[in-house]
């Protein structure tokens, strides 16, 4: 079986793969990320490809490299990771009661053949109308300075969202169905690789 390498240290991406019972290694990418200057779809795909290529070049054994990049867009403007808790509160005020887009770019490379495939997933997320004290409670509890858009949709973040249109796993950072579709282009499948004895269930 081909070695799988996740080019990300994101705990949510690791958890989503681990929930399938997959056997994989984690190798952090040092590729710089860009956050402006291109349409959203191109931006996330370009970042994912840069991460994938950077990790693939460093591997000495054949592997299937999986890289992803997730960004939050409100009115076509990127909401990056907030620099402070005050900025996180301001981001959440902007998102309150509105619909925004979460895009994840994916890039997969088979280092044995030199083949690479890429794609993206888009999910529309609509926030509840949030009171200022609710935002304050969330920021105090989660301290979301390491999250694009200043939020997460699991745990306390489940209280923020009124509805989704599209893939829920995409909002967590790794659209599993899109990933499987891309893997099939390289001749494998998550169905073949998953191990039910190691899978996690809620």
Number of helices: 7
Major sheet details: 7 strands, mixed
Number of domains: 1
Mind telling me the C-alpha Rg? 17 Å
Measured by DSSP, the beta-strand proportion falls in 25-35%
What is the β-strand count?
A: 7
CATH architecture: Alpha-Beta Complex
Helix content: 25-40%
SSE order in H/E notation?
EHEHEEHEEHEHHH
Low-confidence stretches: none
Question: Any idea of the CATH class?
Answer: Alpha Beta
Structural class based on helices, strands and sheet pairing: alpha/beta
Q: Globular, elongated, flat, extended or rod-shaped: what is the shape?
A: globular
Distance between the termini: 28 Å
Write down the CATH topology.
Answer: Maf protein
Short summary:
This protein is of the alpha/beta class and 202 residues long. It has seven helices and seven strands, in the order βαβαββαββαβααα. Strands 1, 2, 3, 4, 5, 6 and 7 form a seven-stranded mixed beta sheet that branches.
Overall description:
Helix content is 34%, strand content 25%. With 202 residues, the protein is α/β, with parallel strands linked by helices. The protein has a single domain, classed as Maf protein. Helix 3 packs across helix 4.
What are the salient characteristics of this protein?
single chain; 202 residues; alpha/beta; Maf protein; 7-stranded mixed β-sheet; 7 strands; globular
């Amino acid at each position: 079986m081909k070695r799988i390498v996740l080019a990300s240290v994101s705990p949510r991406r690791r958890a989503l793969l681990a929930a399938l019972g997959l056997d994989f290694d984690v190798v952090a990418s040092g590729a710089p990320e860009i956050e402006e200057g291109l349409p959203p779809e191109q931006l996330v795909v370009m970042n994912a490809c840069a991460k994938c290529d950077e990790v693939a070049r460093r591997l000495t054994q054949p592997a299937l490299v999986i890289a992803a990049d997730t960004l939050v867009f409100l009115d076509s403007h990127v909401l990056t990771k907030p620099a402070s808790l005050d900025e996180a509160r301001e981001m959440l005020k902007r998102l309150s009661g509105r619909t925004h887009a979460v895009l994840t770019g994916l890039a997969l490379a088979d280092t044995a053949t030199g083949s690479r495939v890429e794609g993206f997933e888009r999910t529309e997320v609509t926030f509840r109308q949030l009171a200022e004290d609710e935002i304050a409670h969330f920021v105090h509890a989660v301290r979301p300075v390491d999250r694009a858009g200043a939020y997460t949709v699991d745990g306390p973040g489940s209280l923020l969202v009124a509805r989704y249109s599209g893939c829920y796993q995409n909002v967590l950072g790794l659209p599993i169905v899109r990933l499987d579709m891309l893997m099939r282009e390289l001749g494998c499948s998550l169905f073949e690789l998953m191990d039910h004895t190691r899978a996690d269930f809620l």
